[in-house]
Design a protein that fits this description.
With 319 residues, the protein is α/β, with parallel strands linked by helices. The chain has a domain of 181 residues: Uracil-DNA Glycosylase, subunit E, CATH 3.40.470. It is rod-shaped and about 165 Å long. It binds iron/sulfur cluster (SF4).
Amino acid sequence: MTPEQRLLYLDAMGIQVWLPNDAVAADGVVVEVASPVEEAVAEVAPVAPPVSAPPVESPAPPAPPPFMEEPPAWDEPPPWYDEAAMPPPSAPPPMARNAPRSAPPSPPPRPAPAAPRQRPAPPPVPEPRRSVGASVGWESLESMVRDCTRCELHRSRTHPVFGVGDRNATWMVVGEAPGHDEDLQGEPFVGRAGKLLNAMLWAAGFAREQVYIANVLKSRPPNNRDPRPDEVEVCIPYLLRQIELIQPRVILAVGRVAAQNLLQTDEAIGRLRGRVHTLRPYGIPVVATYHPAYLLRTPSQKRRAWDDLKLALRVHGAG
Ligand code: SF4
């Protein structure tokens, strides 16, 4: 703006400007004169040229989120859909504000109705074993056992142990196999265990001579080990023939081995005792109890053995 223009503006705004006389030229032309203040300031510090600040760029308006640009198609996932970051399909997807509503998840299929519980099939019942034959009498049977070589036990035995007692007895006792004393004497249930058996029989009302006593095996297994199944298989027909000949009212099976082999089962003696079984194919009642040798080691079980004897007595009385 020129000084003349400035004066015109100030005059138009009603502002009187004082001018020194020397500022007006003789021809009436106003001469540009600096004010005393301006002069003083000019003398102290020269006026620096104005520095123009760099233009501030105004921030660009935020770009609309991608999903606002254009709604996705109904059959497409929204743009923010990160398939890799999504939870497994089993979890419901989070609701998106602008995402199209998806159809509600279909309910899981109903589980098929549970099949009715079925009890495990019982183990197959083995065929009943057979005796050596109905034509074999006592003398022949005893001779067969004396000369038997059906299994290896005949090599190590001292004497075969055939059986003792009344061949017309109504009460029969069956044990597992001869032990050391039985092998030496050729008679079942001798020694301490034999004495306890005699006492048990006596308590039940029988003398030893009034019952018949025999074993599943007729020869002693070495070191008193359990009879092997193959040994039982070839030897038990002798015992079955004895049972056929005696036809007792009741059989008292003493010990696990005797009870399991007579009844052809793997059940423990603790589960076999306390009830009446049937010897197939003869239909003869069998009561199982603990072996006298076990009762000598575990006297606390004698009460249960006595219960078994009473059960056998009831069966015997009903026979
Ligand atoms: S255990 Fe029985 S089958 Fe074996 S040798 Fe003795 S009597 Fe014969």
